[in-house]
Amino acid sequence: MLRTLLLILLLGRLLISEEIIVIGDKNFPKETLTIQEIRAVFLDKKRFFIGEKKVLVMNYKFHHPLRNCFEKNILKKSQRSLERYWAKAYYQGKQPPKIIKSIPMLLGYIENVHPSIGYSDVNATFGKEIKILYKGECL
C-alpha cells in the first residue's frame, strides 16, 4: 500500500515539471507577455483582441495540477478567491476562460484556433507549433 502511494506521488511529480509556460498559437502577434498582461487576460480585465477576433483564453478544470500551479504562481490567487472573483465578475459581463480537460486538448485548440492562449507543462509542448509567451516556476 505504501509503495503504491509512493509510486503515484513520484509519477505525478514526473508528469508535471517545475516550469510552467504560457503559450499562444504560432501566429500570436506578441512575442512575450508580462505577468501583469497574463493576469489581466486570464481574469478578463483586459479584453484582448487581435484584429477583430477575441483571443480564446483557456484554463484547466478545477484540481488539475497545472491549474493549481498557475493560480498560485502566476495569478497569485487561491481557488477560493478566484471563485469569489468570478461570481462578482459575472454580473459585470465578464466571462472566465474556457475550461479544458487535458494538455492534448489545449494543444489541439492552440494549433487550430487563432488567436488562442493557455498554459502548459514545458515538457508537453516539444515539437508543437506554438509560441512561448512566458516562462514561470511552480513552487
Number of domains: 1
Main sheet properties: 5 strands, mixed
**Which overall shape is indicated by the principal axes computed on the Cα atoms?**
globular
Helix content: 25-40%
Pick out the low-confidence regions.
none
Strand content of the residues, in percent?
15-25%
User: Do you know the CATH topology?
Assistant: D-Maltodextrin-Binding Protein, domain 2
CATH C-level category: Alpha Beta
Please outline the helices and strands.
Blueprint: H1 2-15, E1 19-25, H2 35-42, E2 49-50, E3 53-54, E4 56-60, H3 65-75, H4 79-90, E5 98-100, H5 103-112, E6 116-121, E7 130-137
Parallel strand pairs: 4-5, 4-6
Antiparallel strand pairs: 1-6, 1-7, 2-3
Structure, described:
With 139 residues, this protein is of the alpha/beta class. The chain has a single domain, classed as D-Maltodextrin-Binding Protein, domain 2. The protein is 40% helix and 24% strand. The protein has five helices and seven strands. The protein has helices spanning 2-15, 35-42, 65-75, 79-90, 103-112, and strands at residues 19-25, 49-50, 53-54, 56-60, 98-100, 116-121, 130-137. The longest helix is centred in the first third of the chain and has 14 residues, at 2-15. The radius of gyration is 16 Å and the shape is globular.
